[in-house]
TrEMBL record:
CDD domains: ABC_MalK_N
Record protein name field: N-Acetyl-D-glucosamine ABC transport system ATP-binding protein
Annotated InterPro entries: AAA+_ATPase (IPR003593), ABC_transporter-like_ATP-bd (IPR003439), ABC_transporter-like_CS (IPR017871), ABC_transpr_MalK-like (IPR015855), ABC_transpr_MalK/UgpC-like (IPR047641), Mo/tungstate-bd_C_term_dom (IPR008995), NA-bd_OB-fold (IPR012340), P-loop_NTPase (IPR027417)
Pfam families linked: ABC_tran, TOBE_2
KW Repressor (keyword) present: no
A GO molecular function held by the record: ATP binding
UniProt-listed Gene3D superfamilies: 2.40.50.100, Nucleic acid-binding proteins, P-loop containing nucleotide triphosphate hydrolases
Length: 344
């Protein structure tokens, strides 16, 4: 079992409050990812769950038990850091088994657990090596293996892939997804990487300046963002924001439309504009425009397209794909029913 309940968590460093009342429920077996801009409090929240920071006020419960005064080692959690935090003088096997050894687990049981975790992570050939004799990806797998052998109630990951190169990030990401499926463990994960968040999470928690902006599945956040902040934060390239009046929708202060929900043509379309820049990504082409009617626009086209800077083009939004926001940035509606004015 491994459920987590956070109630009104506040944390201040000196006079500076970095967590401003966090309420969150994580169910047993869920994969929950914290995202948000740099400095919003993601790591502080994770460290508070781990017990590496004490909350200034509020309650942290694991499986219903208050753990605010329980030492980190006694909380039944295992944490995997960006920096691996392996002991350089110990072999892979000893690094993985150290926590269990210190807890007085019998040698035979430790060996069995290490063998099982090493099998899951394809680490068998490296058990006798020291960390310096491993690649970054292998070191991170050892750190994950060390967490697995402890059979924690909660796995906490703090940007575990950010020191790895692009290809290795993808492989390790797939490995973490596979592990989550096979272990059915509760995992809480902090990342800067949108793709990691979208692909791994059952539930994403979007934080900004110490508060939760929205909690939801990746597709809920993408298709039905609760406010301008989430709409702008989730999705890359970013959602286009157009003043309601300029869009022709005076019932909304701002209208949002994702770059893939705008079509481009050389003749005939809603908004005439000039191409400013084009990015060819292979599978997609991103076209940046400056339009007369609605200002700058980013358009994402599937496949390869030839558009040149300074070319005059016409952009047309997909009907029903809009998100509408009020003057406070709260969503009024999204998609085919909520995204358009009533008379459209
Ligand atoms: N030990 C500390 N003492 C004082 N201030 C701290 C301490 N730890 C974090 N902070 C401050 O708390 C705020 C939140 O930091 P935190 O590391 O949780 O953010 P984050 O969202 O994880 O950022 P990043 O994405 O850059 O890692 C920041 O303003 C940071 O400077």
């Amino acid at each position: 079992m491994g459920s987590l309940q956070l109630k009104s968590i506040r944390k201040a460093f000196g006079g500076h409050e970095v967590l401003k009342g966090i309420d969150l429920e994580v169910k047993d077996g869920e994969f929950v990812i914290f995202v948000g801009p740099s400095g919003c409090g993601k790591s502080t929240l994770l460290r508070t769950i781990a017990g590496l920071e004490d909350a200034t006020s509020g309650s942290v419960r694991i499986d219903g038990d208050e753990v605010g005064h329980v030492a980190p080692a006694k909380r039944g959690i295992a944490m995997v850091f960006q920096s691996y935090a392996l002991y350089p003088h110990l072999t892979v096997k000893d690094n993985m088994g150290l926590g269990l050894k210190q807890a007085g687990v019998p040698r035979a049981e430790i060996d069995e657990k290490i063998a099982k975790a090493a099998g899951m992570l394809s680490l068998e050939p490296y058990l006798a090596r020291r960390p310096a004799e491993l690649s970054g990806g292998q070191r991170q797998r050892v750190a994950i293996g060390r967490a697995i052998v402890r059979e924690p109630k909660l796995f906490l990951f703090d940007e575990p892939l950010s020191n790895l190169d692009a290809a290795l990030r993808v492989n390790t990401r797939l490995e973490i997804a596979r592990l989550h499926r096979s272990l059915k463990a509760t995992m809480i994960y902090v990342t800067h990487d949108q793709v990691e968040a979208m692909t791994l999470a059952d539930k994403i928690v979007v934080l900004s300046a110490g508060r939760i902006e929205q909690v939801g599945s990746p597709m809920e956040l993408y298709n039905r963002p609760a406010n301008l902040f989430v709409a702008g934060f989730i999705g890359s390239p970013q959602m286009n924001f157009i003043e309601g009046e300029r869009f022709g929708d005076s019932s909304a202060k701002t209208v949002g439309i994702r770059p893939e929900h705008i079509g481009l043509s050389r003749e005939g379309g809603d908004w005439t504009g000039k191409v400013v820049h084009v990015e060819h990504l292979g599978a997609d082409t991103i076209v940046y425009l400056e339009t007369e009617k609605v200002g700058p626009l980013t358009v994402r086209l599937f496949g390869e397209h030839r558009y040149d800077p300074d070319e005059i083009v016409h952009a047309t939004p997909v009907i029903g794909a809009m998100h509408r926001f009020d003057a406070d940035g709260r969503v009024l509606g999204s998609g085919s029913r909520g995204g358009l004015p009533a008379d459209a």
